[in-house]
Design a protein that fits this description.
This protein is α+β, with helices and mostly antiparallel strands. The chain is built from 13 helices and ten strands. The strands form three sheets. It has a four-stranded mixed β-sheet with strand order 4-3-5-6, with helices on one face. Strands 7-8-10-9 form a four-stranded antiparallel β-sheet. The longest helix has 18 residues, at about 1-20. The N and C termini lie far apart (about 70 Å).
Length: about 375
């Protein structure tokens, strides 16, 4: 009977987690037991943390409060959820915990009712957070990370293959639009978290960090007004001596895209057949931005133009992907000449690249970046 009840509770938790399409669909209880919708925090940058008052990491309360005081005015909210699941290190009522934290660390950020973050009774918030960002490991080059890895591996040799919260003071960074951006383990440096917070709180930097190459789009053309805004952002990019050497052609004609796609399908039947989701040769995008440059240069300026347009698109809720393969096809297949003719490319210019653009039908994860390639000469 006990086993059956546990299974039922796990199923309920699973359903609750799956039903949350956004973090803003979830409700939590504050320290007075009152329901609070996380939609109240729309537009804020959130740092969500499970805490404990008798843990070796408890002094992080001081560091978290320092972050809160420094960045609250810029839109940061730290949401504190005490949890007693790790070494029974968060005993007492939420009122007793709150009294301890205010007396010892003078915390000002909101504390919520005690919850569980793993298991059959885990809160739907943590079901959602863990689904968005799983465990990616401790830094074993760090002494504390090595200690945590050794302790947990003794308990479970495969602990690192599970998304469960591993210990107190695990943190999740949530962007202003509700995306779960990053997960931090308790051993991660607060200075690294602060750097990521700064990126998310600045709207320009946040847009840069959020942009991904999108290869799946909704079957919905982009509104003409948005395309105009994106192109205006593009042509305001810097160029050498303000020569503005680029030529831009925005393709909204769906028939033109469909017609040239038939040429591509005829020329590449095996490639088309391999891709069960194939719609068109432009990563299935409903609209295109074609960028042309002089045959004797202009590539650097065109690159600056394209980056401006991709970031502008991201800020408007659109996805993009910079394409080179279709350009090679269009420039070498005689049956596709009608497409280039419609672009009305001036003499002495060439089609340089194409931006696929549309409403994204996927949310790709960020690819790793190699920071070791950066060296500061001081």
């Amino acid at each position: 009977m006990k086993k059956l009840m546990t299974i039922c509770l796990m199923a309920i938790a699973s359903v609750l987690g799956v039903s949350a399409q956004s973090i803003y669909d979830i409700k939590v209880k504050d320290d007075a037991g009152k329901d609070v919708s996380l939609s109240d925090y729309k537009g804020k940058v959130l740092l969500i943390v499970n805490t404990a008052t008798r843990c070796g990491f408890t002094p992080q309360y001081k560091e978290l409060e320092a972050l809160y005081e420094k960045y609250q005015a810029e839109g940061l909210e730290i949401l504190d959820f005490p949890c007693n699941q790790f070494g029974q290190q968060a005993p007492g009522t939420i009122q007793e915990i709150h009294q301890f934290c205010t007396a010892n660390f003078d915390i000002q950020f909101p504390q919520f009712d005690k919850i569980e973050v793993n298991g059959a009774n885990e809160h739907p918030l943590y079901t959602y957070l863990k689904a968005q960002k799983g465990f990616s490991g401790f830094d074993t080059n760090d002494q504390r990370g090595k200690m945590m890895d050794g302790m947990l591996r003794k308990q479970d040799a495969d602990y690192d293959k599970k998304s469960d919260i591993k210990w107190n003071f695990t943190k999740f960074l949530v962007a202003r639009d509700g995306r779960v951006v990053k997960r931090y383990e308790p051993t991660d440096k607060i200075s690294d978290i602060e750097a990521d917070l700064c990126m998310e709180m600045n709207p320009v930097l946040s847009t840069i960090m959020a942009r991904r190459s999108v290869r799946k789009y909704l079957d919905k053309p982009v509104e003409h007004e948005k395309l105009e805004i994106i192109v205006r952002a593009g042509i305001n990019a810097p160029s050498g001596m303000n020569r503005q050497p680029w030529i831009v052609r925005v393709v909204e004609d769906q028939k033109l895209i469909a017609d040239v796609n038939e040429v591509f399908k005829k020329a590449n039947p095996e490639q088309v057949n391999r891709d069960k989701n194939f719609k068109n040769m432009f990563r299935n995008a409903p609209n295109l931005i074609c960028v042309c440059t002089p045959t004797n240069g202009g590539d650097l300026d065109a690159g600056l133009l394209g980056e401006n347009m991709m970031l502008a698109a991201q800020s408007l809720g659109l996805g993009t992907c910079c394409l080179g393969g279709p350009v090679r096809f269009l420039n070498t297949n005689a049956d596709a000449k009608f497409f280039l003719d419609r672009l009305d490319i001036p003499e002495g210019y060439k089609l340089n690249y194409i931006l696929a653009i549309g409403y994204p039908d996927e949310q790709p994860e960020a690819k790793p970046r190699d920071a070791s390639k950066v060296k500061f000469i001081q």
